[in-house]
Design a protein that fits this description.
The complex is a heterodimer of chains A (515) and B (238). Helices cover 59% and strands 10% of the residues of chain A. Chain A is of the alpha/beta class and 515 residues long. Chain A has a six-stranded parallel beta sheet, with helices on both faces. In chain A, helix 2 crosses helix 4, helix 7 crosses helix 8 and helix 10 runs antiparallel to helix 12. The longest helix of chain A is centred in the middle third of the chain and has 48 residues. In chain B, strands 3-2-1-4-5-6 form a six-stranded parallel beta sheet, with helices on both faces. In chain B, strands 7-10-8-9 form a four-stranded antiparallel beta sheet. The longest helix of chain B is centred in the middle third of the chain and has 14 residues. The chains are: A alpha/beta (515), B alpha/beta (238). At the A-B interface, helix 13, helix 18, helix 19, strand 7 and strand 8 of A face helix 1, strand 6, helix 6, helix 7 and strand 7 of B.
Chain lengths: 515, 238
Amino acid sequence: MKEFLLSFALFLHRSPKYKAAKAFAKTLLFDANNPYKRYFDLTIIFLVISSVLILIYEVKNPVPLWLDNYDIYVVSFIFAVEYLLRLWVHNDISEMLIKEYNDAKFLGREFSFYTVLKKGLLAKLKYMITPSAIVDLLAILPAYRPLRILRVFILFRVFKLLRYTKSINQFVDVLVNKKFELLTLLFLLLFIVLTSGIAIYILEADINTNIDTLFDGIYWAIVTISTVGYGDISPVTDVGRAISILIIVSGIAMISFVTSVIVSAFSERLNELKEDRIVEQMNKSKSFMIICGYGQMTKMFFRQKRKHIEHYVIMDTDVARVEAAKKDGYIAIEEDASSHKTLSRFDAKYCDITILCLTSSDVENIYITLNAKSISRNIKVIARVNDPETVDKFRYAGADELLLPNLVANTMIYTAITQPTMYKAIHAILTGKSIANIDEIHVHASHAMMGKKVENLAFTAGKLLFLGIERKGQFIFNPPKSMEIETFDVLLVMGRKISLEYFKLQHEGDIHVKK
Amino acid sequence: MLKNKIAIFGYGNHGKFIAKGLLEDGFDVTIVESEKHFFEDAQNDDFKKVFLADVTKDTELKKMDLESFAQLVCVMDDEHLNVFLTLSLRSLFKDSYILSISDSLNVTKKLQMAGANKVIDLYEVSANKIYNILDKPIATKVLEDFVNNKSGITFREMVIPQNSFLDGVMAEDIDFSSHGVLLVGMIDEELGHAFVFVTAGISHKLDSGDTIVCLGEQKELEAFEALIKKKEDRGVTI
């Protein structure tokens, strides 16, 4: 038996198919980046809703047999499969066995097969008693026909939906944070309910026709303390009424107390919850920008209105600046971009992240750059450098692009003084004014420009100025007329936006615009 | 008024860079500072005309004969002082050309109201660069090299002299690229003193006195400038 299980574990360990299947099941169940997860989730949600609807319909109407069968077998079967899958991927007993076997062989100690097996099975059992696993199990039970009472468990299927609602988790989170206060209140409540329930039972069980058992007494106490007061049971003696008064007064006090605890817990975490939502949305968008610091540079960046930036978040450690950003209508959160915890919340693996370090402190900007690069090399960092002497440090830190506002402004002033005419030209080019817009034309393999000579591309007729070609990292300025265009060339052309777009259209693929 | 006589107010972050550049290019630079240590910096950096003055006092400004300067450049580190100085200079010298630096949109507006002829925003160009990096990284890099003269290719202004072969010719009839330079734009005196990009699509007749802005390698630019200065060269096949 032992040998057989061990060799089976070895077989699984060596099977790439088994591993791939397990990995797929794992991502299907847990990883939002698996493309099939969406469909899987939607199927589960559909099954839950349909089976609950059938249950409701069944109360007053006869249900056709096929629908009943669907409910019992199809839905339950799929849920059972899901349950087993979750149990399967929870941990890996075969891997544990192999590891223990290898370790034992290496150390020359005795291979304790059953200890490991027990450990693995215990982990599975531990999973089985988590609330969500219990809900999953109960959702399968209605399939057992002989016991019609199990039909009620269909309602547990609704709880399966909780997996898909984040707000419930957040609610639970908030409550867990106030565990101490809430537990204290709960014990107090229990104490009052039990004592007054017992008291009313002792005092009135013989007189009051509505109170027969201790349960009646406790039921009455809860109905009263919660200020619901159905009135089906009410005290008839003076002492009973006196107890009622006490219970009602303490009930009101306690309810307001509980409410205030929950409300304050929420307002404490409201900002955090909002930020979580923003981060989540960013991660969903696949490509976004994190802008650090809301100072003059950031303001200027947004006021340019060159292009609508759809997905971005502004981060600043200063509350006043975050408030100012929000007031100006931007998405901003109060977070420290130089902390590892903050940036690692963003999904650098699956998203294109660009970080703009625009704070006015070089130290801060370098730190953010390093932080971002330490999380993932894929994060693109555009950093502002205030002191030109720190440029090298930014390069070492790994910044992809540098902005030197001081140096640029100085050059601009200098140009404005020495060559006023050119200042206008350079300013227009650098700020991308319509007429002086410089654009890149990327030549791909099926591009109509391929193989054409420079002189045959009618730049002048298209009111464009051809500056040159970037080829294999080298820029060829004003290339000779006989030069042929090659694949992966990037042509730099200056002109009005409409001229450029028309020119691109003319030369794109097979589209030819007749003149 | 001498064309290359420049007064720079402020020898801080920006003033230093600008003043040194201008001095190298042979400009007659005068520096005015109100801070003692900046004033000393300027003196140590071998500037001849350095004044220590309280720029908030009109009497001190009046003493300096500022009408004779071609441009008054306000690049004080303190933005409040900079705005105040711009205002004082404008009220004292109605016809002077005043250039100021601004570090925010609000200050830009104030400087314009104070009467600066040109306001350069510290962040405007850099903010635009972010968009350029995101949209067209290659073009941005190449352009930057042009502006900073890193790749050897740079811009140059040239004035067309009388009897040059360019005098009286339509701009689109000349093939500049065969001379190794590209015509970026020009200041047409006929159309009023405005800079026009060649890509604006307006036909231009070049006349003597017009300024053209070309892009090219330093050598080619010099050769081309020499060529247009040659008198009566119309016979040359272009």
